[in-house]
Amino acid sequence: MCGIVGYVGPRQAQDVLMHGLARLEYRGYDSAGLAVADRGRVAVAKAEGKLARLIERVDQSPLPGHAGIGHTRWATHGVPSDRNAHPHSDTTGDFVVVHNGIVENFRALRDRLEAEGVAFRSDTDSEVLAHLVARAFDGDLTEAVRRTISQAEGAYALVAMTSRQPDRIVAARMISPLVVGLGEGENFLASDIPAVLEYTREFLLVEDGEIATVTRDGATLETIAGSPVRKQPFTADWETDSVRKGGFDHFMAKEIHEQPDVISRTLGARIRPSEDGGEQVALEGLEWSDRDPAEIDRIWITACGTAYHAGLVGRVLFEQLAGIPGEVAFAHELRYGKPLFRDGSLTLAISQSGETADTVAAARLARRRGSRLLALTNVVGSSLAREADDVLYTWAGPEISVASTKAYVAMLVGESLLALELGRRRGTLSRTAERELVAELRTLPGKAARVLEDMDEVSRLADVLAGSPDAYFIGRGLDLASAMEGALKLKEISYIHAEAMPAGELKHGTLALISDGTPVVAVVTQEDVHSKAMLSLQEVKARRGLVIAVAYEDDEEIGTVSDHVLRIPRVADVFSPILAAIPLQLLAYFVARRLGRDIDQPRNLAKSVTVE
To answer: Do 292 and 322 meet the contact criterion of CB atoms below 8 Å apart?
Structure first.
């Protein structure tokens, strides 16, 4: 949630900040603002709505200066408005802050400050931080920030600046992500690497409980207690083209079309020659002894949203290929429950960003209670990756569209690789079966590309769905997870109500909602329940529902009970969710286009959910 960018150096700060905010707008777009220090004062501009509104304002009244901070907001406290937009100032205007997160004790802090005569100008929790920094300042902004965060409870990334020390910006992190970008005679702060990738490739990761003081000459890190922190910079090897649309109308379309390459990258060097002349999975980042996999008696999988759907697929893979029973739990439920973790359990925490607050909290709970923690994430050095005993990176590259596509597919590939390695090391998967499945994995990039070659049918179907207020998605087994992800994609970017359920549940209530022309999207790829899935579709047709099936290209029978069929190449059934995701993503995309929705930045949502 929320995007932060900061700059100190010879360039006009406004230009760097606006560029960074454009790269971070996927993190929140309820409002945006920036503050620039110049000639003994701090000038602030902010605007409700998308970044274009702020661009209009600064074009009319530029903010000159060489140090500044910027923010794009996803609202938690206070409705989206100019007055609630960041940056927030103290009563003198000499101190400004931007903030990502939630100050959980803000009401008590605000009451105390108001009793002392402070007049608040916003409804946000963040404004209390500006007043606290101003009151704590005695000539040293770093020390003022330290004193401020000692009073604030919650999760946050806070960045402060003042006209009284205009040559620096000071940041503190507690859970919400923050990086320092290192340049020559200039330095940067950002919530996420893409914000400043065009200016630098060298970064320092600000970790929980650390304060960063950034000037044009360098950056220093220290703990909240004041101890120096020394760490080596890391190099971000992302291409700048990866954060551009590359000729597509939307980032979502670009990221859907990147999936064949993403599958290849996730497989990467993880498939290697075996001693018997075939190939097998060998995963880096898993520091397991020979005994460790055999001793796993249960896998807990925790995630939110799209990553949760990936977890549903993973549970089946681990049970079928590795013989390990699994439990999938929403992270926001697990962290407040009483899960029965034990020493023999493995917890797989899944998050594209590695910063999802609920998932990180659930992962920490699992470790505290004795479970080994494995992170499946896309972002190197993320909070989840640092928390985990072992990390499996997906290597999907930056994903800008709020609706996840390529990251989801990469998660499925990562889980498939993990299940195969566990199956081999536990002895539950024969060498012949492993060889055949590894060979199937090798075919996935090419088969994914084939799905993308012909989009005419899915484009035509968009007209059908765009005119319906509701859609229902059904599936059995692994197809249910695909149906759930398909329904999520449709509702989050088209705003059409979409509901997913097991196909067998239709007749237990939901069939009452099926009438003439009601769209029912059925994923039908699992051979062991194919005949049962056909019965469910016949029930829909008997009520004159409109059946749209996702099925294998050689499944002739499916056409007898479907009005439209979106075809995918045949693959081993355990890997079908990887291919089935693509037509469902495209269907949601084309429907949203027909309806004129804001596809990359759907209303009320943000990319990285770093607040509870």
So the answer is: no
Q: How far apart are CA 571 and CA 445, in angstroms?
A: 12
Buried b / exposed e along 16-31 (16+ C-beta atoms within 10 A): bbbbbbbbbbbbbbbb
Helices (H), 251-354: 251-257, 259-267, 292-295, 305-322, 331-334
Taking the whole predicted model, whether its pTM rises above 0.90 is answered as no
The vertex-293 CA angle with 291 and 299, nearest 5°, equals 145
* DSSP helix/strand/coil, 366: helix
422: pLDDT strictly greater than 60 = yes
Residue 293 C-beta-side C-alpha neighbours within 13 Å: 20
Contacts 24+ apart (CB under 8 A), 430-433: 431/276, 431/278
436 sits in which H/E element: helix 431-453
Angle at which helices 431-453 and 576-595 cross, to 10°? 20
**Greatest CA span in the chain, whole angstroms?**
78
Residue with tokens 């890190």: 221
2 in catalytic set:
yes
What are 236's two structure tokens? 């971000």
Q: Angle at Cα 453 formed by Cα 451 and Cα 454, nearest 5°? A: 85
Alpha helix (H) ranges present in 543-603?
576-595
Compute the distance between CA of residue 171 and CA of residue 26 in angstroms, rounded to an integer.
22
Q: Are 388 and 375 in contact (CB under 8 A)?
A: yes
Residue 517 has a CB neighbour count (10 Å cut-off) of 12
* Catalytic residue, candidates 2, 254, 406, 447: 2
Of the two residues 9 and 154, the one the predictor is more confident about is 9
| Active-site residue, from 46, 447, 489, 607 | 607
Residue 430 CB: number of other CB atoms within 10 A? 11
- Does the annotation count 304 as an active-site position? no
What is the model's pLDDT at position 288? 85
Bridge partners of 219, per DSSP, are: 214
The predicted structure's pLDDT at residue 247:
79
Sign of CA dihedral 249, 255, 256, 261: positive
Residue 298 pLDDT exceeds 80: yes
Across-strand partners of 568? 552
Contact 136, 159 (CB under 8 A): no
